[in-house]
Structure prediction request, 261 residues.
Amino acid sequence: WSSDVCSSDLDSKYIIPVGVAVAAIAVTQPSVSVIFVIMSLLYTLAECYEKGIKTLRPLVTIGILGILLASTYWMPTVIKYGVENTKRGIGIISSNPGNIFGDTELGKVYTVEDYLFIQPQGNIDQMIGVSWVFAIMAILGAGICIYQLIKGKKDAYLTFSVMMFVFGFLGTAGNSLPTYLRLYPYRFWIFLAIPVAILTGIAYLKLEEWLPKYKGLLLIAFVSLVFIFSAINKFSVQTAIWPPGVGYSSVEELRGYFQMK
Prediction:
């Protein structure tokens, strides 16, 4: 939102806070920050498509500020541990030869079933799948956006939503792509969920526009389908109890404590 304000109104008071936020992401989530960079580039392209090249100035300023602030942490770290050890420490290099980006699904290639049906069993940290309800609605929403863009409507919101949807899908399908195009496929489910939610909202509002007499029925049907085919499975996994004798441990968290000591 702050980046949008900067590019829309060219209001400089938001540039520093957003730059600090960029640096914070680069320091606290270094492996995933690559994904955020690509998302930012897609957003910038969408903004330039709607409002012209003038939007580049504040966005580029934000990027430079974020890089400079983040480098105050990463430059000393690289000097102390070296490039390879730093990359290994943040998960860019995995001990698994076929899994150089540290994907916790160990190279799994997701099928159509994985997308259309929430898996009854999955990793406790992140569920796999979006459900056929959201998949159909997101595809419909993407079609609506593309149609409006083809008709000549310049809207950064619509453009970014479609680009982010394609980017998120390709991200989750990364293990079926060449190695140099893989960026943590398992972690991409949460990034795919963002455009899916946006496009689902666009599709739902358009359905209400097409069927104004059935708004109440549409709402009941949509909420019911989401609850049955998505919410129940997600809730059951996210609230699952750890088996007896199994405890939580995070090597990365322990390393952080050791570094602080």
